[in-house]
Structure formats: C-alpha cells, structure tokens
Write a structure and sequence with these properties.
alpha+beta, 4-stranded mixed sheet, 8 strands, globular, signal, Sporulation and spore germination protein, GerMN
Amino acid sequence: MRKTVCVISFLMLLVGCGVPVQQEPAPIQPEAIPSHLRGTGAPTIPQPTATPGSPTLQVHFVRNDRLFALAREAPTTTPADRLAAVIQALMTGPNDTEQSDGITSALPPELTLTVADVQGKRVVLELSGETEGRSAAENVLAVGQIVLSVTALPTVDEVTFQRHGVAVEALLADGALTTEPLTAADYAALRSS
C-alpha cells in the first residue's frame, strides 16, 4: 500500500511540474546538447581487441582515402601462417563495426590473392579475378593496402605481383608504374597521420 501511494505521489508531482508526456521520441537539436556531452565530430575507431599477451597483425584498410592499420589477432605458429592470416584478413575486409565507422577496403570484391612464392624477405602474390574498370586512385589504394599489410610482418620487406605467373605492373603512390619489388616506403605517403 505504501509503495502504491509513493508511486501515485511521484506521478502527481511529475504532472504538477509540467513534465510533458510524449508517445513518440522527439529529436534533440545539436545546439541543445550541453557542450561537455557533444563528441568531437570525428567518430572513434574501435580497435579489435586481441587477447592480452597474444601477438597481433597489422592489416591496412581505407578511411577518407587514406590507409591506416587495424590490429588483428595473429596465429602463434609459423611466419607462413601469419602471412596467410594477413592475406585472409585483407580478403575478409573490415568487420561490421569498422564499416559503420566509414572503414572500407580498396580491394575489388572479385580479387583473389594467393601467396605464389616467398623468396627470402620478398613475397610474390598471384592476382586472380576481375580488377578492370577501377580508377587509378582506387588501384593505388588497393596496392598500398596490400603492400603495407604484408610488409608489416617482420619477415617481409618486399612484395611483387603476378598474374598467371607473369609479373604485373603496380601503381606507386606517385602514380608511376613498376614491376620492381614494392616496399612500405613506396606507400608511406598514403598513410593516415
């Protein structure tokens, strides 16, 4: 009985204070939000968390036409397994949360990457699938995304591409074409600051 009286008194107090009751949510104008509650306007990028103490891989993706690294959990086995994990992460792309924060992949969905050979600290990647009809900017970001991700591994310094076993020209960040081995330094200008 006492609880019922308290609830009724509280409701009467609310009605008496003029707190409006609405059936539908109402939008709040941005200027009505106190400044200490407003964000900076730049959404935060959630970093996938790895188990504390476990090794991670850096895989590069695209946001606002710049490349930046996200962490992915690394297998603790061989360098070949870590390389395969990087390639798989590139092919999988950003997760749903990352995509909702504007993170994308420059890799065409039809592209498939396969490790064709490892020669010391150089990795040869076989390209397959359709990659035509893309702009030079998209292609540079795609190549940079792959090269920065693969060379983030301590066992890899250089990347080359081939298609059906034949060397493929790749776009450098400055727009030049080359079949020479590619390094992280070739795409450093595309990294987000």
